[in-house]
Design a protein that fits this description.
α3 (91-106) crosses α13 and α9 (237-253) runs antiparallel to α10 (290-310). Helices cover 35% and strands 23% of the residues. It has helices spanning 3-9, 30-45, 91-106, 133-139, 144-149, 158-164, 176-180, 195-199, 237-253, 290-310, 330-339, 353-357, 384-402, and strands at 51-52, 58-62, 72-78, 115-120, 182-190, 203-209, 211-220, 224-225, 259-268, 274-275, 278-287, 314-323, 326-327, 345-348, 363-368. By secondary structure, it is α/β, with parallel strands linked by helices. The chain binds glyoxylic acid and manganese (II) ion (MN) (2 copies).
Length: 406
């Protein structure tokens, strides 16, 4: 087994989800914290002391020359997962970063500037609803007030959960000092589609991230008894919500290139013999042109209002997050491709902390082949050989960056 796979093997038993399959590692919950402990132990084993900043981002610095921590090369990813997710989304980037440090040392590389390793909390937004929450807080893309008031599915606020994890809610917010430490950021991630499979290559350089956002639709109706309420007397929000799901697909199909998904749908109270009083559903829309995303959401919202009214219900729509399309720094992407001439340039439809950081610092990504092309699912995969090839590619890129001034 390769060294990268050996790192991942140490966490393979953590956060397994016996009900959904795969892994459920929500941020600040025991499984994600266990992974963070593992990461910190691996950092310390390499003589790198982890520190947590005021936004909950964990950093460690390899800085043999004792240079000032500005304009550093930084790599890293995340350790939280979607519910029932795969083993590689996030952890592969962290394991590859650790392995890349080992490779650089084995090669005798003496960095001209510091190398930072970073782990970002709540990249998936699967606990508090806003993806890339740590990098958004760090860059000021979300206000601390809004972030602290976010709640998880059990009603716990981000403020309370963060406090319980040892963070001070008063410290959250844009951190220009932390940003100034980053000269270039390079995140390695398992590919979440089948671009590399189709091209027959193990590693790609990222070109862009599709703009994407999340909207919460709340349909209000009349909760009632399944046996005593005649069909003509019902105001069933679940019926309206189901039609909204279908409408979202129809609207998206009318705008080529759109991806529209409802992956979360919650009737309240959710009893077999109960007509729901309310349904919450979350719409995820992605398109390369942000104006198309906005048009799709506007059209779905208009149809949702009509469909709800047709069932005697009402609907509220709230935007939970929005990330514009990101074109990664072209000069940095060219540089990565010069180091890795066999690596194709690939766009992605998946969001990443690198996408949030890209508005502030030159940012690039590497993707490692996923033979199933499936992600956010237990079927997500990366072969032993490719995992190591990805780490080697990351080390090659970091070496090139580290040996030249910022
Ligand atoms: C995260 O992977 C996302 O694209 O939502
Ligand atoms: Mn990810
Ligand atoms: Mn993901």
């Amino acid at each position: 087994m390769s060294e990268t796979s050996q790192l991942l093997a140490a966490i393979a038993g953590t956060g397994r989800d016996a009900v959904r399959g795969g892994y459920s590692r929500p941020v600040f919950a025991p499984a994600e914290r266990e992974l963070l402990d593992w990461c910190c132990a691996e950092l310390r084993r390499r003589g790198l002391e982890p520190e947590t900043d005021r936004n909950g981002v964990v950093w460690a610095w390899w800085n043999p020359g004792g240079a000032p921590l500005t304009g550093a090369v930084v790599t890293g990813s995340h350790l939280d997962s979607v519910p029932g997710g795969g083993a590689f989304d996030g952890p592969l980037g962290v394991a590859s970063a650790l392995r890349a440090v080992d490779l650089l040392r084995q090669r005798g590389v003496e960095p001209a500037r510091p190398l930072g390793l970073a782990v970002f909390p709540e990249e998936e937004g699967s606990r508090f609803g806003v993806a890339c929450l740590g990098s958004r807080l760090l860059t000021g893309a979300i206000s601390p007030e809004r972030a602290l008031a976010l709640t998880d599915p059990d009603g716990n606020t981000f403020a309370d959960v963060a406090r319980a994890a040892g963070l001070d809610p008063a410290g959250f917010g844009r951190d220009d000092e932390a940003l100034a430490r980053i000269g270039q950021f390079v995140e390695l991630h398992v590919e979440q589609g089948r671009g590399l499979v189709d091209l027959g290559a193990p590693v790609a350089v990222a070109g862009s991230i599709l703009g994407h956002g999340r909207w919460r639709f709340t349909v209000h109706g009349q909760g009632n008894h399944a046996g005593t309420t005649l069909l003509e007397d019902r105001r069933d929000p679940l019926l309206a919500a189901s039609r909204i799901v279908v409408a979202a697909r129809e609207v998206a199909a009318g705008h080529p290139g759109t991806r529209a998904t409802v992956g979360r749908f919650q009737p309240v109270p959710g009893g077999t013999n109960v007509i729901a009083s309310r349904v919450d559903l979350w719409l995820d829309v992605r398109h390369a042109q942000d104006a198309v995303t906005a048009a799709v959401v506007a059209e779905v919202s208009r149809r949702a209002a009509e469909l709800a009214a047709g069932e005697g219900c009402t609907v509220e729509v709230r935007e939970e997050s929005l990330s514009p399309t990101v074109e990664f720094d072209p000069a940095l992407a060219r540089r990565l491709r010069a180091v890795l001439p066999a690596a194709p340039l690939l766009p992605t439809g998946a969001g990443h902390d690198a996408g949030v950081l890209a508005a502030h610092v030159p940012t690039a990504m590497l993707f490692t082949r996923n033979p199933t092309g499936v992600s956010h699912s237990p079927e997500e995969h990366c072969t032993d050989e490719d995992a190591e090839l990805g780490s080697v590619a990351l080390a090659d890129v970091l070496q090139d960056l580290l040996l030249s001034p910022a």
